[in-house]
From TrEMBL:
Major localization listed first in the record, in broad terms: membrane
One GO cellular component term noted in the UniProt record for this chain: plasma membrane
Organism name: Sphingobacterium allocomposti
Name of this chain's protein: O-antigen/teichoic acid export membrane protein
Membrane topology category: Multi-pass membrane protein
Transmembrane segments: 21-41, 99-116, 123-141, 170-192, 235-260, 266-285, 297-319, 339-358, 370-388, 394-415
Keyword Nucleotide-binding among UniProt keywords: no
Statement: the UniProt record of this protein carries the keyword Nucleus: no
InterPro entries, sorted: Poly_Biosynth_Transport (IPR050833)
Amino acid sequence: MQAVQIAKAKRWAKQISITGAAQIIVQAVGFLSGILVIRLLPVEQYAYYTIANTMLGTMTILSDSGISSGVMAQGGKVWQDKKKLGAVLNTGLYLRRRFAWVALSITIPILSYLLWKQGADWITCVLITASLIPAFFAALSDNILQIVPKLHQNITPLQQNQVTVGIGRLLLSGLTLFAFPWAFVAVFASGIPRIWGNGKLKKIAEPYIDRSQRANTSVQVEIMRMVKRILPSSMYFALSAEITVWLLSIFGTTTAVAQIGALGRFSLVFSIISSITSIVVLPRIARLNPKSEKKLFFIGMSILSTFFVCLIAVSLLSVLSPYVLWILGDNYSSLKQEFVLVLIAGALKMVSGLVFGISTARGKPTNSMHIIAGNIMAITIGALFFSLNELAGILSLSILIGFTSLIINVLNLFLNLKFFINN
């Protein structure tokens, strides 16, 4: 028995180390692309770029609204059956296409207003909006397609695709921004490689699914049940996930918007951790047999280990902040305090997201209204004590929101322990 446990531990250590190494490469390439954009774009154009990227994230959240979580949960039940998994996948893709048009109708007017608020003329607004379309349509399916190799733990082709897309973005950004240092060019250069990578994802998923299967009504009902549970929080998080950028875009200066965008590049540390949990941990939790006696131990160790890794990352980067900020250039090298606040906010968001993902993978996501009510309370308290037109004040508010969300998600997990034990 002990030999079996040791063998399992070795397999886990090997898979996590391989996945982690690959994600370091993926994030390093993405980081280089981000630094290239920061250094080549003027502060004003980088502020526009930050707003556009934030809006792309909002578009993606709204077009998903819990669909990918539903696909993961339903796919985890039938992952060994090509026909049933194909039906789950195509149902998810069908729903995302329908949600996409709603997301566009909501976000494009908001994007135009925020760009105008920061001084962009109408031509710039149109060009930036148009440049977002390729990346948005690629995002409609890539999150769903990735679920198939994740469930089968066929991780290597998935990561190779991510590395290739990242290198393509780096090369395209470098070739275009030297000659055309405009925000819409940077956004467009980022989106084109994602379309190519999307095509590769379809080929990676192909051996595990029957693509001829049509969207299934019963699967759609189950996915929509998950969507209805998550949708209110998805709509709320679409606006609140990047609340720092939203508030600075409305109340702050163009320089402050550029600063928060530049500092956010160092969230790659938590992106690496998030990618590992998304690729290795959450699919395995979704697949756990209801009769398994080690479910709670596995869930608890996943949360604790992620927390300690985030704690080490925050501590180490805080000590090295003068050297880290030098990478961004002279415009951002004095933001030591703000940098530490960004790290703390990112760590809280990472751990909170993991806890929420675990609950969702087992079919009991945190009630949307609890999250919204808690975050509104945090925003109200934060608005009374923090200055919302200063970067440090906005980041302090972000930390308060992240801490509140973490507490709510942990409470949901704890209160549903009996369900997790029996299902």
